[in-house]
Amino acid sequence: MKILVGGVPFGCNNIGDEAILGCALKIFRRYFPDDDFTVSTGTPEITAKKLNVHTVPLYGFTPDSRPATEFEDFIRGFDLYIWAGSTGLSDYPQLSC
Questions:
Q1: What is the pLDDT along the chain (97 residues), one digit of tens a residue?
Q2: How far apart are the first and last CA of the chain?
Q3: What pLDDT does 85 receive?
Q4: Is the Cβ–Cβ distance between 42 and 75 less than 8 Å?
Q5: Cα 85 vs. chain centroid, distance in angstroms?
Q6: pLDDT in the model for residue 13
Q7: The predicted structure's pLDDT at residue 90
Q8: 3-state secondary structure of 1
Q9: Parallel/antiparallel/unpaired status of strands 36-41 and 54-57
Q10: For residues 46 and 20, what is the distance between their CA atoms, to the nearest angstrom?
Q11: In degrees rounded to 5, what are phi and psi of residue 6?
């Protein structure tokens, strides 16, 4: 199964989010060892190396973000989308989904 993990701006120096990501991936891999994980992150190279995952750039955390339809098209390539992390929409009220 192809799984995309995102929802918060991973890779942006929030130690809590990074700890949650690392722990969540450890748990997911325990139960789904053969699944393919991709993480949406602000530091693709670092995240890929540190967590042994595929990565994609962040989506939706800047006012000049790509249109939502682009994200909809992209996410169709995954079987599951997991929103993870401790921050979220309340931390970015200036941006809409």
A1: 999 998 788 888 888 889 999 999 999 999 999 999 999 999 999 999 999 999 998 877 666 666 677 778 888 999 999 988 776 555 555 555 4
A2: 26
A3: 74
A4: no
A5: 9
A6: 85
A7: 55
A8: coil
A9: parallel
A10: 16
A11: -170, -150
Three-class SS string for 44-93? HHHHHHHHCCEEEECCCCCCCCCCHHHHHHHHCCCCEEEECCCCCHHHCC
Count of all residues that appear for the chain in the document? 97
CA trace torsion 15, 21, 22, 28 (10° rounding): 170
Q: Residue 69: is it exposed, middle or buried by C-beta count within 10 angstroms (0-12/13-18/19+)?
A: exposed
Q: In which element (H, E) is residue 32 found?
A: none
DSSP symbol at 95: S
> Look-up: residue for tokens 């996410």?
75
Helix (H) or strand (E) holding 11: none
